[in-house]
Write a structure and sequence with these properties.
Blueprint (H helix, E strand, L loop, with lengths): L5 H16 L4 E8 L2 E8 L13
């Protein structure tokens, strides 16, 4: 598993903390990038350390 960027990891961690503070495990939004609309969805589900990829 390769991280796209440290900034993305930080942003996702902050979003995760905000969602969990509100007892939510799902978020959906619409975003525009390069002139195209996208639906962005985030699902949070707990994983055990043993489930992590070997290269994490």
């Amino acid at each position: 598993m390769v991280s796209l960027s440290p900034d993305l990891d930080i942003a996702l961690t902050q979003l995760t903390e905000r969602l969990l503070t509100q007892d939510q495990t799902y978020a959906e939004s619409y975003v525009m990038a390069k002139g195209q609309l996208y639906r962005a969805e985030l699902y949070l589900r707990p994983v055990r350390p043993s489930e992590l990829p070997a290269d994490y």
